[in-house]
């Protein structure tokens, strides 16, 4: 606060930090106290994961890495006091795109679990608008451990984008047969090029019902996470193309290796079950 008060008003600084005026003035009246061992550990975990985790995940990691067992309500109270809370992700609207050619049935039926690797993959495209031009991110996730198997970041969302992503995933996993690959009914996924590749590689195509994003919730959630977590404080069109590419790459590495998930008993995808090819 002292560093910025000469340039900005207290009200403007507190608004930018999301801190109430009453909280700030209460802090100024309270004597400075050294943080407890628990509070220090919680702070380190929140900083390490860039404030992406809520109190439930922090509680689990606190026990795992610091051997400190606390009720999640206690952890939540400490996080609130120290202003370490996780952000609330903004919801985005799903839009159906393109004309249909080949429509596959919804074989996944919202069963987002798999008993083994390469049983079920989900895929989708999202846009990244933080560089000089809009880029399109195509991702494939394995539902066994929610690992990102492959991704491609192009400056278009045409068929080569998703064909190259699928080929990269197959190469990364040693060309498995019989994988169920689930997508929406976007024009690139219903194209003869993509469906022909699915058939050629002995895969099984599955598609969400038209206009129903919940049928592909895992990949939708992942694309929401990369935007809200990696690009949280970035303005649209404010980075170079190279910076966008680096940030996407960094997040993919973080997600597979370090980002814990409740579904995986609070392990990261590769901690839960890395795939050896």
How would you describe this structure to a colleague?
The protein is an alpha/beta fold and 277 residues long. The protein has two domains: 72 residues, no CATH class; 154 residues, Nucleotidyltransferase, domain 5 (2-Layer Sandwich), CATH 3.30.420.10. 40% of the residues lie in helices and 12% in strands. The protein is built from ten helices and five strands. Strands 3-2-1-4-5 form a five-stranded mixed beta sheet, sandwiched between helices. A hairpin with a 4-residue loop joins strand 2 and strand 3. It starts with 9 loop residues before the first helix and ends with a helix.
Summary?
The chain is an alpha/beta fold and 277 residues long. The chain has helices spanning 10-17, 21-29, 37-48, 55-66, 72-81, 159-172, 192-200, 217-230, 241-257, 269-273, and strands at residues 120-128, 135-142, 147-154, 180-183, 204-207. The protein has ten helices and five strands, in the order αααααβββαβαβααα.
